Automatic annotation (TrEMBL), chain A:
Organism of this sequence: Tabrizicola soli
CDD domains in the record: TM_PBP2
Entry membrane topology: Multi-pass membrane protein
Annotated Pfam families: BPD_transp_1
Protein name stated in the entry: ABC transporter permease
From TrEMBL, chain B:
UniProtKB keywords: Cell membrane, Membrane, Transmembrane, Transmembrane helix, Transport
InterPro entries: MetI-like (IPR000515), MetI-like_sf (IPR035906)
Compartment(s): Cell membrane
Stated family: Belongs to the binding-protein-dependent transport system permease family. CysTW subfamily.
Residue ranges constituting the ABC transmembrane type-1 domain according to the UniProt record: 55-261
PROSITE patterns xrefs: ABC_TM1 (PS50928)
UniProt name for this protein: ABC transporter permease
Length: 271, 270
């Protein structure tokens, strides 16, 4: 139980930093209503033209659809492989488990730009032997994203397994359950919420991925972040503000919804 | 090795081996074979004034960003962990909402605020403080602001863990013996969370070293950092050998820093 609460100075400082954190997110809202074709704050006149551009310019819909497709495939592959790997470490306790774990987490801890160059090397090499999983293809991007996001799923699932009571598995085993039954009827159902969390987190990570995507795509596989990047680099396109507002509204709704739900849940407990 | 080992551990390790480890060896090969065999690119990377300038700028910006981001995250996390229920929830929202929003949207938000026709310059000019717009972006200032903004949530998580593990009774004992709030903070609370601060600082610094998107957008090609230099050497003025050599140097540096971090964590656990 915390009894010494922070004083006025600490609270004021934290409030200023909180404002700093929210400032750029609020700033895009007025800019998205500008009537001009360049980055500006509306001066009396407001316009929805940049929101209309999001609907009318097919590039945005294509980018969103591509990002969703890549995100779904990459997160399913990454979570499935990560679940198998984490189960392997937990059930079999292999020798050199630490080394294997370090290897599995490598794409997460390496600097993103090094991973990007590595995956660029990988996909351009693959391009020489096939056209499907290659540089600047959606399958190539999905594979590269799977490599980048799998470590996050490994971390989540391994933590969940380490908190799981081993005796459940031992009981099943002693009653003659085979490895298939133990995995699919005993262990996985017990960590199903973590599996869903891992799917969700890896999907979001792939949906937002830009560092690696920039290296491995050029004109064909233009994901939503790649499209935004192109609108940000040279002449700043205010349509970026409109799409940003849409993305911010989605995140704020989800986070706020979760917080309110928790607030009510803990409030009930406190009473 | 049994069939089970292969079945469970095999798929992920095979994917990472084929798509990550082998290609990284390929990148290393580039660094010693392009344009000609030898360690010339490493020599060039560590003696070329342009590359050295970029490395020095990267280290300097990362150090500044680390200090500011960890200090800001500390003040914020203090309320997140120890504040009243309402304050705690509000701070949590302010950490989680930016955390889930993409780096591009956040960089764009800073452009909207800081650029010459942006909101801050607009206000200052309409209030008559300025005749010429201040250059707040496309320079190191913009890069530092954007990176600090991105990294505060990442620093907040390890700090929160450290602060939650502080034993409340120690603070109450100090209070009971008449220590002032300021003294409790500086002499008891801060030293007790020292390992959390060091952990957060290392994490932020390692993250910042490999930063690409924020400096590229907010630096506007003028304050190039290491990651952007690699991109430029691969895609714009192709010198793949040099790009690969700098990547290997970056990877080794981050590996060493992570080694320090793990040793420190092990020390803290003991």
């Amino acid at each position: 139980m915390i009894q010494l609460r922070p004083g006025l100075l600490a609270t004021t400082l934290a409030a200023l930093i909180a404002v700093f954190l929210l400032m750029p997110l609020v700033a895009v809202i007025p800019v998205s209503f500008t009537p001009t074709r360049y980055l500006a704050v509306p001066d009396g006149e407001w316009s929805l033209r940049h929101y209309r551009a999001l609907i009318e310019n097919p590039a945005w819909a294509q980018g969103i659809w591509l990002s969703i497709r890549i995100g779904v495939v990459a997160s399913l592959v990454a979570t499935a492989l990560a679940a198998a790997f984490s189960l392997g470490i937990w059930m079999l306790k292999p020798r050199f488990a630490g080394v294997l774990m370090g290897l599995a987490l490598l794409p997460m801890v390496a600097p993103p730009v090094v991973s990007a160059l590595t995956l660029y090397f990988f996909l351009t090499t693959l391009s020489k032997v096939n056209d499907l999983v290659a540089y600047d293809t959606w399958a190539g991007v999905a594979l590269a994203h799977a490599v980048m996001i799998a470590p996050f799923a490994v971390v989540l699932i391994s933590v969940a397994l380490s908190q799981l009571d081993r005796r459940i598995d031992l009981a099943a085993r002693s009653m003659g359950a085979g490895i298939g039954t133990r995995v699919f009827r005993i262990i996985l159902p017990n960590i199903r919420f973590t599996l869903l969390t891992a799917l969700f987190l890896t999907f979001v990570l792939s949906w937002e991925e830009i560092g690696v995507t920039l290296f491995i795509t050029s004109v064909d596989a233009v994901t939503l972040p790649r499209l935004m990047w192109m609108g940000l680099r040279d002449n700043i396109d205010p349509a970026i503000a409109a799409i940003s507002v849409v993305l911010i509204v989605i995140v704020v709704t989800v986070v706020l919804g979760k917080t309110l739900w928790q607030w009510r849940a803990t409030g009930r407990k406190a009473r | 090795m049994t069939a089970r080992h292969v079945l469970l551990l095999g798929p992920l390790l095979m994917l990472l081996g084929a798509a990550y480890l082998l290609p990284f060896l390929g990148v290393m090969r580039w660094s010693v074979t392009l344009p000609e065999p030898g360690f010339g690119q490493y020599h060039a990377a560590l003696s070329d004034p342009l590359v050295l300038g970029v490395i020095w700028r990267t280290v300097r910006i990362c150090a500044v960003v680390t200090v500011i981001a960890v200090a800001a995250a500390y003040a914020l996390t203090l309320i997140w962990v120890r504040g009243g229920r309402t304050a705690r929830t509000l701070v949590e929202l302010c950490i989680m909402i930016p955390f889930w929003i993409s780096v591009l949207t956040r960089a764009f938000g800073w452009l909207a605020l800081l650029s010459n026709k942006g909101i801050i310059n607009g206000w200052l000019q309409s209030l008559g403080f300025l005749s010429e717009p201040l250059t707040l972006v496309r320079n190191e200032f913009g890069v530092v602001v954007g990176m600090v903004h991105f990294l505060i949530p990442f620093a907040a998580f390890p700090l929160a863990t450290a602060m939650r593990s502080v034993d409340e009774r120690v603070l109450l004992a100090a209070r009971g013996m008449g220590a002032s709030r300021t003294r409790i903070f500086w002499q008891i609370f801060l030293p007790m969370t020292k390992n959390g601060v060091l952990g957060a600082a290392l994490l932020v610094f390692v993250f910042a070293l490999g930063f690409f998107v924020t400096p590229a957008i907010l630096g506007g090609g003028r304050s190039v950092m290491v990651a952007e230099l690699i991109y430029l050497r691969i895609f714009q003025s192709p010198d793949w050998g040099l790009g690969a050599a700098i990547s290997v140097i970056l990877m080794v540096t981050v590996g060493l820093l992570l080694g320090v971090m793990m040793r420190q964590n092990r020390g803290a656990a003991r």
